[in-house]
Amino acid sequence: MAAQMTDAHRRFLQVLMSHGIMEGSEARKLHRRCCEVHKVYYAHDKLDDFISTINSHLQPLFMQIRKGMSEGDGRAHYALVNLAETEITKMASDYTENELELFRKTMDLIILSENGFASSTDILNLADQLKTKKMKKKEAEQVLKAFVEDKWLSERNGEYTLHTRCIIEMEQYILSNYQDVARKCNICHSLAIQSQVCESCGIGIHLPCVRKYFKAQTEPRCPQCNDFWMCDIPGTKQ
């Protein structure tokens, strides 16, 4: 039988719903605050159990709080995911058909790229090639801005990649729709968009996982085939 939901669980869920996604340290602070305010048992290492209780009550609603990792810095994040809807229909209530088409095409560029990024120039060049309804570049710039604000995309120096929220929500969609190129990280086993790939056997590893895994190794070798790891290890002096 599922553990009982308390007001502490409800408050946690409400705050997470309003944010959509929350960094691990913020989620831990929120967990503590909710327990203290509602005077329920708190243990600093029981956040995942606390979330598990919420998830058991969300199950009939086809929703779930999922844990994922930021590909930029490796930090844990928690996001509320709608399991009832698949593919990009999750976004349909917020965006028009041609905006969704632009997102799909942007996703294609990012996932099919070598480094998990797409330039704003390449994305904006797609705006007047949309089948649903062509978009002016100025309009496309506003739509990209909305994708970033809503945490579907992340932008850095004119380069776009999938936001952690998008990866957590759309992992299954991406793995099924990009079977030839989408891969899971060999270390943490979650979807890897920004990754390094072994030149010998083709496995991929997230950049934060690469940093952690090869940290203590003087001669980095692939965890799968044991061949020398040819890529530069991020965060180390060459």
TrEMBL record:
<protein>
    <recommendedName>
        <fullName>Non-structural maintenance of chromosomes element 1 homolog</fullName>
        <ecNumber>2.3.2.27</ecNumber>
    </recommendedName>
</protein>
<dbReference type="InterPro" id="IPR013083">
    <property type="entry name" value="Znf_RING/FYVE/PHD"/>
</dbReference>
<keyword id="KW-0779">Telomere</keyword>
<dbReference type="GO" id="GO:0005634">
    <property type="term" value="C:nucleus"/>
</dbReference>
<dbReference type="GO" id="GO:0030915">
    <property type="term" value="C:Smc5-Smc6 complex"/>
</dbReference>
<dbReference type="InterPro" id="IPR011513">
    <property type="entry name" value="Nse1"/>
</dbReference>
<comment type="function">
    <text>RING-type zinc finger-containing E3 ubiquitin ligase that assembles with melanoma antigen protein (MAGE) to catalyze the direct transfer of ubiquitin from E2 ubiquitin-conjugating enzyme to a specific substrate. Involved in maintenance of genome integrity, DNA damage response and DNA repair.</text>
</comment>
<dbReference type="GO" id="GO:0008270">
    <property type="term" value="F:zinc ion binding"/>
</dbReference>
<dbReference type="GO" id="GO:0061630">
    <property type="term" value="F:ubiquitin protein ligase activity"/>
</dbReference>
<keyword id="KW-0158">Chromosome</keyword>
<keyword id="KW-0233">DNA recombination</keyword>
<comment type="similarity">
    <text>Belongs to the NSE1 family.</text>
</comment>
<comment type="subunit">
    <text>Component of the Smc5-Smc6 complex.</text>
</comment>
<keyword id="KW-0862">Zinc</keyword>
<keyword id="KW-0227">DNA damage</keyword>
<dbReference type="InterPro" id="IPR001841">
    <property type="entry name" value="Znf_RING"/>
</dbReference>
<dbReference type="GO" id="GO:0000781">
    <property type="term" value="C:chromosome, telomeric region"/>
</dbReference>
<dbReference type="Pfam" id="PF07574">
    <property type="entry name" value="SMC_Nse1"/>
</dbReference>
<keyword id="KW-0479">Metal-binding</keyword>
<keyword id="KW-0234">DNA repair</keyword>
<dbReference type="InterPro" id="IPR036388">
    <property type="entry name" value="WH-like_DNA-bd_sf"/>
</dbReference>
<keyword id="KW-0863">Zinc-finger</keyword>
<dbReference type="GO" id="GO:0000724">
    <property type="term" value="P:double-strand break repair via homologous recombination"/>
</dbReference>
<dbReference type="Pfam" id="PF08746">
    <property type="entry name" value="zf-RING-like"/>
</dbReference>
<keyword id="KW-0539">Nucleus</keyword>
<keyword id="KW-0833">Ubl conjugation pathway</keyword>
<dbReference type="InterPro" id="IPR014857">
    <property type="entry name" value="Nse1_RING_C4HC3-type"/>
</dbReference>
<keyword id="KW-0808">Transferase</keyword>
<feature type="domain" description="RING-type">
    <location>
        <begin position="185"/>
        <end position="226"/>
    </location>
</feature>
